[in-house]
Amino acid sequence: MRARLTELDPEALQLFFDHYFDRVHGYVRRLVREEHLAEDLTQDVFLHIHRSLARYDPDRPLSPWVYTIATNKVRDYWRSRRHQEERRYQSVDAEDGGVEPTARDGGPSADLESSEVSSQVAEAVGELPEVLRSAFVLRFYDGLSFEAIGTIVGRNETAVRKRYSRALKELREALAHLSDG
Question: Is 14:8 a contact under the CB 8 Å cutoff?
Fold first, then answer.
């Protein structure tokens, strides 16, 4: 199939899209923590992939190549002026003490508690430094090997293992209050 992708074969492109879209969107969503932004960035990722497929080497694994493009698009966004301005705006909002409500329509208290825990976990993951967050999300949510993650983030396997371990440690500390209950 990889060779057919470089020829922009419509059937291969559809299979590729079906296989990777939700995975890439979920990865980007966990990194940027905002649905509309994740949709925009995911669209940018697939546009970039489509434009680059003719140069893709079908002998190379596809997954690390796709996630590298996604990671770079997110990093480009984080470096952008738009992101810096949004961060300044959000810090002013945070001083107001406003908390965004979660989108729930009520329900049993167990569902509400589960939703709150999920929200706290997502928030804790979002608060990780970018280098730790990328390693954690790619390993925990996307199930990639440490070697593949190393290829994506440009580090060796040992460094990625350390980042993942540090991410887990920081998450345990940030979420310790959940197990005290």
Answer: no
Structural domains for the chain: 1-92 (1.10.1740.10), 110-181 (1.10.10.10)
Tell me which amino acid residue 32 is: V
pLDDT for residue 121: 84
Global pTM value? 0.68
Alpha-helical regions (H) of 80-108 = 81-95
What does the alpha-carbon distance between residue 47 and residue 181 come to, in Å, rounded to a whole number?
A: 46
Structure tokens, 145: 């090997």
Q: How many CA atoms lie within 13 A of 121 on its CB side?
A: 13
Residue 174's identity, in one-letter code, is A
Distance CA 105, CA 80 (A): 36
Query: Rounded distance, CA 124 to CA 103, Å?
Result: 19
pLDDT at 105 over 50: no
